[in-house]
Amino acid sequence: MTLRYEIIAVTPFRQNCTLLWDDETGDAVLIDVGGDVPFVLAETAKRGLKPAAVWLTHGHLDHAGGVAELLSQYDVPVSGPHQDDAFLLEQLPQITAQYGFPVSPSFEPSRWLQEGDTLKVGNYAFEVMHIPGHTPGHVVFYCKDAELLIAGDVLFYETIGRTDFPRGNHADLIRNITSKLLVLPEHTMVLAGHGRTTTIGHEKRNNPFLQG
Ligand SMILES: [Zn+2]
Ligand SMILES: [Zn+2]
Q: Which GO molecular function annotation, any one, does this entry have (predicted)?
């Protein structure tokens, strides 16, 4: 297996920015650049890599707040989230200021994503799944060959994403996790947006929100 990843915790929210790369081709992407951009770029350069793209799971500030700064240094395409999160990216200047983050300008991604889209890093294809509930436009990235799921703030170790934010929906979240994620192979590794990694099988058996 030559798909590799490194989790880089950023912002006061300890968001898991993920550096993902194909060791064979040297192609690299950054997922959820929430902030601490110089640190993220240093971690990327340390491995001899250059980001060729940014992928976003959703529009919350701790996942998207560093994108504009990154784009000022690297002109790379930004894929995601789903267009239903456009209101969050539009409000980034106010929201970052409100939370005491470095103020981010609003931006529009190069490409909004939809259920069934495919993204590639090197030789690895990731399937896009739309999982609304935490935010209406939240997407996750699934690589069947690498048995890897980038879950953003949908699914965490023994818990699930908050749904008390604007346009959150608990029933939507549970329904989409159950129908789209719990059906994946049990040993699929789950990289969550915060905290430790887990697997689909572990969550199926132990996540108190997903029993029955
Ligand atoms: Zn979030
Ligand atoms: Zn988050």
A: metal ion binding
Q: Within 13 A of 91's CA, how many CA atoms are on the CB side?
A: 11
- What stretch of H or E contains 45? helix 37-46
Helix (H) or strand (E) run with residue 121 in it = strand 118-121
Q: Do residues 127 and 115 lie in contact, with contact meaning Cβ atoms separated by under 8 Å?
A: no
If you count them, how many residues does the chain have?
Answer: 212
Task: Fill in the DSSP letter of residue 59.
Answer: -
Answer yes or no: is pLDDT of 1 > 70.
no
CA 73 to ligand 2 centroid distance, Å? 24
d(CA 185, CA 70): 35
> CATH assignment of 3-210?
3.60.15.10
Q: How far is the CA of 212 from the centre of ligand 2 (A)?
A: 26
**How far is the centre of ligand 2, averaged over its atoms, from the C-alpha of 167 (Å)?**
15
- Segment 155-168, tens digit of pLDDT: 999 999 999 998 99
| 167-206 pLDDT tens trace | 999 999 999 999 999 999 999 999 999 999 999 999 999 9
Q: Residues within 5 Å of ion ligand 1 by Cβ?
A: 60, 153
**Sign for the pseudo-dihedral over CA of 199, 135, 29, 19:** negative
**Residue 17: C-alpha distances to residues 54, 62, 206 (Å):** 11, 9, 25
